[in-house]
């Protein structure tokens, strides 16, 4: 194992879950309570450079040009410790990361962030992990990062321990024309992180066990829909699954929601479009932004409809993106 003598750069795209991960069985290893399934998106990504240097006495983390405080870089430094353990090295690292994702706005920047960090840090430390092992490593940073190692449609197999919980590709380069229209309704930092929100659901929602059985069924249905390229089945099931997840926030104690007034307006607009005969479905993660799953041929028309309501800048059309890439 040879530590790289120059910065290693990795680029990973974010992903949007069609069947959500919402709850952990193991908070340390980030073993989820259910299987989940996502689409990796081409427009939103993180690019991260990592170099381990004998001259450093502490890890140095630069995020979008700013040096992070010890508190802000804690998750990154904890993650680097996993990489050091795995590689058997002791050097501190310089991490320089740029996010091409509206941060903490429900566009899951921790997914692309920890996937890129896993790729760059492991190779910089001299490890040459295959994609399954990279997805296991990324999982230790953030659950959704597990899936961002792969492109297109990706599943995260729940597993039961570190060795068995990893992502795998279902259809890396979909041949059917799928698009996601992302509505950036606010770029403000969310009040309740997914980490805290899902823990509350596991510990307090009386609906939690129903969520597990429903989402395991949704997982099978969406997988079949992808295999058969059945857009309506995929869209309908994804929308139902998203609302089931959000029902967990409403039924937690204390209760909370990620919806704001514009989210509800946008969801109703999606239903109006369906009544007009345009097949499209919504999904939302741990933030107020709404993502609309549609067929590529309808994407521009749908985007225009939402641009009239929310403004041109707030509406982004994105397509399935590729998996991680890592420099030599
Ligand atoms: C709603 O991956 O951010 O986006 O593992 O605690 O870092 P941690 O959580 P995170 O949660 C993502 C939740 C979600 C659903 C999903 O992406 O599957």
UniProtKB/TrEMBL annotation:
EC number from the UniProt entry: 4.1.1.33
Gene Ontology terms: biological process: isopentenyl diphosphate biosynthetic process, mevalonate pathway
Start and end residues of each Diphosphomevalonate decarboxylase-like N-terminal domain: 12-167
Coiled coil: none
GO cellular component: cytosol
Top-rank taxon: Bacteria
Keyword ATP-binding: yes
Annotated Mvd1 C-terminal domain residues: 180-314
UniProt entry keywords in alphabetical sequence: ATP-binding, Lipid biosynthesis, Lipid metabolism, Lyase, Nucleotide-binding
Entries under Pfam families matching the protein: MDD_C (PF18376), MVD-like_N (PF22700)
Single Gene Ontology MF annotation: diphosphomevalonate decarboxylase activity
Family: Belongs to the diphosphomevalonate decarboxylase family.
Name of the protein described by the UniProt record: diphosphomevalonate decarboxylase
Encoding gene, per UniProt annotation: mvaD
């Amino acid at each position: 194992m040879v530590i790289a003598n120059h910065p290693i750069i990795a680029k990973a795209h974010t992903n949007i879950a069609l069947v959500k991960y919402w709850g952990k069985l193991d908070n340390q290893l980030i073993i989820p309570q259910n299987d989940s399934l996502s689409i990796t998106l081409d427009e939103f990504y993180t690019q991260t450079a990592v170099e381990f240097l004998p001259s450093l006495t502490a890890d140095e983390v630069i995020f979008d040009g700013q040096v992070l405080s010890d508190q802000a870089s804690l998750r990154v430094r904890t993650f680097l410790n996993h990489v050091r353990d795995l590689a058997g090295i002791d050097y501190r690292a310089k991490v320089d990361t740029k996010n091409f994702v509206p941060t903490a706005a429900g566009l899951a920047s921790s997914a692309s962030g920890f996937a890129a960090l896993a790729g760059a840090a492991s190779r910089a430390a001299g490890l040459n992990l295959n994609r399954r092992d990279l997805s296991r490593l990324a999982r230790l940073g953030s659950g959704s990062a597990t899936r961002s190692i792969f492109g297109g449609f990706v599943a995260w197999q729940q597993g039961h321990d570190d060795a068995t919980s990893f992502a795998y590709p279902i259809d890396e380069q979909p041949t059917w024309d799928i698009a996601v229209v992302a509505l950036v309704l606010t770029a403000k930092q969310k009040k309740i992180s997914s980490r805290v929100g899902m823990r509350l659901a596991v510990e307090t929602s009386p609906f939690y066990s129903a969520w597990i059985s429903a989402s395991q069924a949704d997982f099978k249905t969406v997988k079949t829909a992808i295999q058969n390229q059945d857009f309506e089945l995929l869209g309908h099931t994804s929308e139902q699954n998203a609302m089931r997840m959000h029902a967990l926030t409403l039924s937690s104690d204390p209760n909370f929601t990620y919806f704001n007034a514009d989210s509800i307006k946008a969801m109703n607009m999606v239903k109006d479009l369906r009544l007009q005969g345009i097949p499209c479905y919504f999904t939302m993660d741990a933030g107020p932004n709404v993502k609309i799953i549609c067929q590529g041929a309808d994407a521009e028309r749908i985007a225009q409809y939402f641009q009239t309501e929310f403004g041109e800048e707030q509406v982004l059309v994105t397509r399935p993106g590729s998996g991680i890439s890592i420099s030599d």
